[in-house]
């Protein structure tokens, strides 16, 4: 498989807090990788460093072989519009709330050069359908949507330009359990159908089990265990992973 993103020897401290300790990770085309761990273990920081939003103190991140932190802001912004997508935990961070649902999807297409209004609207309708938002809501503002619908709209806005890699930070956090399950099914279906690589941060082990081919377990900035999801969850080697898995089983 072709490695899309490779990171090696990442270290980052916030004062006395080691947020990343010698972290290495790679993700290939079409692969879903989950980063799990308790609150404060460094998951979001890792996602921010891997997506170029934050520079590490040491270590490298490469996209298709090019050093991300050497390529400059303009090139990283271009990646964010084209090859990459970002699904935030809070859909309000990924949507424009004063723009209609259709506009939210369509403006991403315009950012990559689409100009034909009819085509853009047609694709917006198609994507609303794919994420199970009724097309009759196309001209409504996202603030009139439920949390689950907003999250599905954020996913449509992110995927409409067919990125190769999508970063997801707790995409089901803060939603009702039944809404979470539906959203996870949707993410799983779309990632398979589109052959997307997904790097998903979650503290929900069940979500990782459902979605991820591989997982990394973080604790205090370190990757304490990684491997195929079924292997890590069915036969955890590190005491911390054993604790995580047994706490879910006991719940
Ligand atoms: N901008 C910052 N300034 C100072 N400390 C920070 C900053 N961002 C994160 N930290 C600290 O770095 C550590 C890792 O934080 P991070 O947000 O990456 O963890 P996390 O695993 O994503 O947690 P959560 O699941 O609660 O979001 C924590 O101790 C956090 O308090």
TrEMBL record:
Protein's UniProt name: Phosphonate C-P lyase system protein PhnK
An example molecular function term from Gene Ontology annotations: lyase activity
Organism (species): Roseomonas fluvialis
SUPFAM superfamilies: P-loop containing nucleoside triphosphate hydrolases
Pfam assignment, any one: ABC_tran
UniProt xrefs under PANTHER family: PHOSPHONATES UTILIZATION ATP-BINDING PROTEIN PHNK-RELATED
Domain ABC transporter: 5-245
Family matches, as Gene3D superfamilies: P-loop containing nucleotide triphosphate hydrolases
Annotated keywords: ATP-binding, Lyase, Nucleotide-binding
InterPro entries, per database record: AAA+_ATPase, ABC_transporter-like_ATP-bd, ABC_transporter-like_CS, P-loop_NTPase, PhnK
């Amino acid at each position: 498989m072709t490695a899309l993103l490779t990171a090696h020897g990442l270290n980052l401290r916030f004062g006395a807090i080691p947020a990343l300790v010698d972290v290495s990770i790679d993700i290939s085309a079409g692969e879903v990788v989950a980063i799990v761990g308790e609150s404060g273990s460094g998951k979001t920081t890792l996602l921010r460093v891997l997506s170029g939003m934050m520079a590490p103190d040491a270590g490298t991140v490469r996209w298709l072989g090019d050093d991300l932190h050497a390529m400059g802001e303009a090139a990283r912004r271009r990646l964010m519009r084209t090859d990459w997508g970002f699904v935030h935990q809070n859909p309000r961070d990924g949507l424009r709330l004063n723009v209609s649902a259709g506009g939210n999807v369509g403006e991403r297409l315009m950012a990559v050069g689409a100009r034909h209004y009819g085509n853009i609207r047609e694709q917006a309708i198609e994507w609303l359908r794919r994420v199970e938002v009724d097309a009759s809501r196309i001209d409504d503002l996202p603030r009139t949507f439920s949390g689950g619908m907003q999250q599905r709209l954020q996913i449509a806005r992110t995927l409409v330009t067919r990125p190769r890699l999508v970063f997801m930070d707790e995409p089901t956090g803060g939603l009702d359990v039944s809404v979470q399950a539906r959203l996870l099914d949707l993410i799983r279906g779309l990632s398979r159908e589109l052959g997307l690589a997904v790097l998903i941060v979650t503290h929900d082990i069940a979500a990782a089990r459902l979605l991820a081919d591989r997982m990394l377990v973080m604790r205090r900035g370190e990757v304490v265990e990684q491997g195929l999801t079924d292997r890590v969850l069915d036969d955890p080697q590190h005491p911390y992973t054993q604790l995580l898995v047994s706490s879910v089983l006991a719940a």
